[in-house]
Amino acid sequence: MLKTAAILAFLVAALPAAAQSVSGTVTKIDEAQGKLTINHGPIKNLDMDSMTMVFRAGDPAMLKGLKAGTKVKFDADRVNGQLTVTKLQKAK
C-alpha cells in the first residue's frame, strides 16, 4: 500500500501543471495579429509573476467584444512555443 502511494505521488508530481484561471485586465488588442496584452496576476503553470504582457489568442473569436480596460479571467499555456490564451471570459 505504501509503495502504491509513493508511485502515485511521483506520477502526480511528474505531470505538467494544469492551467489555472487568472484574473487580469486587457490593456491592448491587436485583432490583425491575433494578440492581446493583459495586465495579470501570477500564472502558476507558466511560473510567471504578475506583469503586463502580450499573449497570442488561441482562437481569434475570443478577441471580439474586448477593449482596453475589460476585466477578464483566462487560462494561458505554451502552444507551439508561444504564450497563448487558451480560455477567456469577461469577469463579472
Automatic annotation (TrEMBL):
Residues 1-19 form the signal peptide. Gene3D superfamilies: Copper binding periplasmic protein CusF. Keywords: Signal. Pfam families: CusF_Ec. InterPro entries: CusF_Ec, CusF_sf. It comes from the Bacteria. This is Copper binding protein CusF. It comes from Bosea robiniae.
